[in-house]
Structure formats: structure tokens, C-alpha cells
Amino acid sequence: QVQLVESGGGLVQPGGSLRLSCTASGRTSSTAAMGWFRQAPGKEREFVAAMKWGSTNKYHKETLRDRFTISRDNAKNTIYLQMNNLKPEDTAIYYCAAHESIYPISSWYVNGSWGQGTQVTVSS
Q1: Which of 6, 18, 46, 77 would bridge with 118, disulfide CB 3.0–4.6 Å?
Q2: CA 122, 105, 51: angle at the middle one, nearest 5?
């Protein structure tokens, strides 16, 4: 079992930036991919970005790739989500997740490991 702990959420004004962090512990060797999802009030949880520990390839939701960037620090077992030019519609709980593969995205919801989530609120 892998444990995930997110941090870095908070309240930010429109146009601002935040960097989320997620540190993995436990059986990290069983998870090849790490990612970020988000869930806004009244909406379903959606994919944001993901990457593999052993690859520099990054996968972002198409509509977010110009503002959000996923990265990792293997030595720290930590992934990050840099979010720039934040908009009110980015307000959501952001979840870190671990899974054995990137695709299909639907499989993350079935047997992925999840953190507790961190709240991001974009408001003036």
C-alpha cells in the first residue's frame, strides 16, 4: 500500500499561482505513475496531469496544459503541480493519486491510491 500526502493548497486571487506537493511513502515501488485529479463542488473528479517515475513524459488535460505543469523529485518521492494564472473555475479539491499505469485514466478511479486532497480556492 502506498500513502500519499498533499500540501500547498489555499486561497489565491485570480491570476495568482500555487504549487501543490504530494509525497509518497510505503510501497512506492508498486506504483509506476503519479498524478493529480480535482473535484469541484457538484462535479465529478477529473484528470489534471500525470507522469511516470521513470520517464520525463508528462500528460496534462488538454485545456490546462498552458497553465498547469506536473513535475517530480524522485529522490524525495514527491510530485508537484505548478498552477499559474489561476481562475475561479479552478476552485476544487485537488487529489494526488498513484497507479500502475497512466492509461486508461478510468482505471485510476477503480484501483488507484489516493491522498486526502487539498483545497484550492480561487477568489478575489
Answers
A1: 6
A2: 75
Strand partners of residue 114: 97
Q: What is the pLDDT of residues 38-92, one digit of tens each?
A: 999 999 999 999 999 888 889 999 999 999 999 999 899 999 999 999 999 999 9
Residues counted in the chain: 124
Cα three-residue angle 31-98-77, rounded to 5 degrees: 70
Any residues with CB less than 8 A from the CB of 108 and at least 6 apart, and which? 35, 37, 47, 97, 99
> Grid coordinates in use for 91?
476552485
Helix extents (H) in the chain = 106-111
